[in-house]
Specification:
With about 280 residues, the chain is of the alpha/beta class. It has one domain: NAD(P)-binding Rossmann-like Domain (Rossmann fold). It has 11 helices and 9 strands. The protein has a 7-stranded parallel beta sheet with strand order 3-2-1-4-5-6-9, with helices on both faces. β1 (about 15), α1 (about 20-35) and β2 form a beta-alpha-beta unit. The termini are far apart. The structure holds nicotinamide-adenine-dinucleotide (NAD).
Length: about 280
């Protein structure tokens, strides 16, 4: 049992989506060891111990609403960790948008009445979102669509422009949504809302990306890893989520924290030579 009670999770109710694998699984494990009551939402059953598993496909909006309804019975929920997501080439770009952004947003918004005032939400975006500023006008247009079916129809109407590969856009949408909602949730309920942006991380997601050829070993080997000298592990992404969402970080909300070994900030100031991207496939 970890002895880090000061982080504020002991006896608290938390919900982790994607808790059956990878980063979400490690978040669920760590929080369980810190004494939290962990509810896992996923399409596959978890391997780590938890208070309850809620089978739910985030691409199915009726299931998402039903799961939120069930979770309201365990209110107040103190912390949310939306970790579920999938890479672009498994089920298509529109599906990727549906799970990574639209379904995830629907679950969070449906759970708002069940969240405690002062709750924390920390989700996973990606380094893929580092160009979010240049697409802000379109992202704000989509953000304004609050109904999930309407948001999906808006994507379907012009996928080439509004969805692109599905993954990058979904992760940019998460960053823009977090920044917006953090202000509103903070003012209304003192709820904090933050995101991390991981570098390539050794999980099932990455295995699937390699298997479909969306990413190559050569590309991953060429990626710069200043702090670890290698790809991150799921646990090395779970800790920043757990630390970010701790009430110790009362002044931190609306943050997009790159957990990418210095990649995005290095690229922005020219310290990282982006030439390695040329000719190599990436997710
Ligand atoms: N692995 C990486 O290199 C990397 C890099 C940047 C961001 N990310 C993001 O990290 C998050 C976690 O991914 P991971 O790397 O731990 O991968 P993972 O595949 O190990 O875990 C993803 C989890 O999401 C669940 N999930 C997938 N589709 C779902 C759906 N429709 N409904 C409910 N649950 C669903 C899966 O069952 C799985 O448990 C994802 O959002 C991913 O986009 C991953």
């Amino acid at each position: 049992m970890l002895q880090l009670d000061g982080l504020g999770y002991r006896g608290k109710t938390v919900v982790v989506t994607g808790g059956a694998s990878g980063m979400g699984e490690q978040v669920a494990r760590i929080l369980g060891e810190l004494g939290a009551l962990v509810h896992i939402v996923d399409i596959q059953p978890p391997k780590v111990p938890c208070a309850a598993f809620h089978a739910c496909d985030l691409s199915d909006f009726a299931q998402v609403r039903a799961t939120a309804q069930v979770l309201k019975a365990v209110a107040p929920i103190h912390f949310l960790f939306p970790c579920a997501g999938l890479p672009p080439h498994l089920k298509g770009a529109l599906y990727c948008m549906r799970v990574n952004y639209i379904g995830t947003r629907l679950l969070v918004e449906s759970l708002l009445p069940a969240l405690a005032d002062g709750a924390g939400i920390a989700l996973i975006s990606s380094d893929a979102a580092m160009g979010w500023q240049k697409n802000l006008a379109q992202s704000l247009e989509m953000l304004a669509i609050t109904d999930p079916d309407e948001a999906y129809a808006w994507c379907e109407a012009d996928p080439e422009k509004r969805v692109r590969d599905g993954y990058t856009t979904s992760k940019e949408m998460l960053v823009v949504w977090v920044s917006h909602a953090a202000v509103r949730y903070g003012n209304e309920r003192r709820i904090r809302f933050n995101a991390i942006g991981p570098c390539p991380t050794k999980t099932a997601f990455m295995e699937q990306s390699l298997a479909t050829g969306a990413v190559t070993e050569e590309f991953l080997d060429a990626w710069p890893y200043p702090s670890l000298g290698r790809m991150a592990t799921a646990e090395e992404q779970a800790w920043p989520l757990v630390l970010l969402n701790s009430p110790l970080n009362g002044a931190v909300t609306g943050a997009f924290l790159y957990t990418d070994q210095g990649f995005a900030s290095g690229a922005m100031v020219g310290a990282i030579d982006m030439a390695f991207m040329m000719g190599a496939k990436k997710a």
